[in-house]
Structures are given as C-alpha cells and as structure tokens.
Amino acid sequence: MLNDKRLRIIVGHYGSGKTEFSINYAVKLANMDRKVALVDLDVVNLYFRSREKAKELEKLGIRVIGSSIKASAVDIPAISAEILAPVQDTSYDAIVDVGGDPTGARSLSFYKEYLIEGQYDMFFVLNANRPETQTVGKVIEYIRRIEATARAQVTGIINNTHMLKNTTVEDVLKGQELAERVGEKTNIPIRYISAIEWVAKELPGNLKGQIFPISLYMREEWMV
User: Fold this and answer.
1) Please, are residues 95 and 25 in contact by the beta-carbon 8 Å criterion?
2) CATH superfamily, with its number, for domain 7-214
3) Burial class (CB in 10 A: 0-12, 13-18, 19+), 132
4) For 79-131, how does the pLDDT look when each residue is reduced to its tens digit (9 = 90+)?
5) Rounded to 5 degrees, what are φ and ψ at 77?
C-alpha cells in the first residue's frame, strides 16, 4: 500500500479535495511508522489549508511546513525555506499540497531542479462534480495547464469525486468513469479512488486504482 515515489506532489482544481487527500495520505504513512513531512505549498487559497491542522498532525509525528510568516492574524503568500529539507533529505516521505489551479502550481516551478523525472509522483485529484472538470476535454486541458506551469508531469489520477458528507457510491462511480476515459486518452493511470470511509466500504472491488478510504480532517463536525 502507498508504494509511490518518495516525493508525492498533489495538484488539482480548487475544491477537488486535494488537501483532504494530502492529509489522509500523510496520516496513513505516519501510521506505517514512516518519517513524514507534509508541505503546504498553497499560496493561493486562504481557506482549508493543510497547515491549519499542523498541531494535530505534529502530534502524530508528521512534520508540517507552510508559510514562513508565523502569525495568526495575517496571511502572506510566503513559502518557508524549510521546504527543501524533506525534498532533499531522502529519509523523508514527503507530500506536497500545491495550490489549486495552474496559477497555484507556479510555486512548484521554483523547485524544478529537484523534480527529477522518475523520482517523484504528481497526482491530479479529480472531482467530477466540479464544473471545470466535468468533461474529458476540460480535465485534460486542466492537467496540461498545470504541467506546463509546474514544469512537471502528472503521473497518476486520483478519483476523489465527492459531495462532502453527502457523497454517494454513485458519485464516486460517475467520477471513476470520467477518470478512466481521461486515462485512456492520456495514458495516465488511476492511482487511487478516494472516498469517505462509509462510502469506500460499498465500492466494488474491481475498479481501476486502489480504494483509499479517508476521514474528513478539514470539515468540522458542524459542517455539512
């Protein structure tokens, strides 16, 4: 399980659930007694960022790296130089949560020299319920724009089609169909099928990709 490259980069459209996936991935690795770093490279979105859960994640042994501006009352798009530690130190399993659009992916291009082909995975998180990623053409265009901006190649698709806590098996299967069609056109494999735990239990076992049950760390109990 989770036999991906040591450096995993998570990209996708805003609202696709990439931050939730990133956190769940980091937690699963930590539960496997791995040395884990979660890098929040999102300098675009002001809400639902992985660094908001830093205290909880650090209790699990996960190193969280985010903005270099350490103040709760401000939000300045600055990335800590600490990011290079897990990128260069091969003892880390690193997850990099990148800003949710081609503009957000631009920050990744600054680290191009460390993104050596074959030594990283870049996963595109697909939510087929987002208007901007509901067709094969739109998804492929979005992937290519992110690749061009980030100067890195997508190596896998994550079907994370959801409606938050109201997600159904039908939602996930709709996203799976779209992900498979995109995969056929691009030769990009489906790596994971991410779904909230009670939905993941109901998914058929013959789907392309590994079923990846998640918890909703970014949604408080009172949120729908």
Assistant:
1) yes
2) P-loop containing nucleotide triphosphate hydrolases (3.40.50.300)
3) middle
4) 557 888 898 899 999 999 987 667 777 777 777 787 888 899 999 999 999 98
5) -70, 80
Gyration radius (Cα) of the chain, Å: 16
Question: How many residues appear in the chain?
Answer: 224
Q: What is the pLDDT of residues 167-196, one digit of tens each?
A: 999 999 999 999 999 999 999 999 999 999
Question: How does strand 93-98 pair with strand 36-41?
Answer: parallel
Residue 75 CB-half CA count within 13 A? 10
Angle at 141 between CA 135 and CA 146, to 5 degrees: 125
Q: In what order do the strands lie in the sheet with 36-41?
A: 62-65, 36-41, 93-98, 7-12, 120-126, 156-159, 190-196, 210-214
Region of 172 (left: φ > 0; alpha: ψ -120 to 50; beta: rest) is alpha
Measured CA distances, 122 to 7, 67, 78 (Å): 8, 21, 22
49 closest CA partner among 79, 5, 28: 79
Residue found under tokens 């909880």? 56
Q: Which tens digit of pLDDT belongs to each residue from 50-82?
A: 667 788 899 999 999 875 555 444 444 455 578
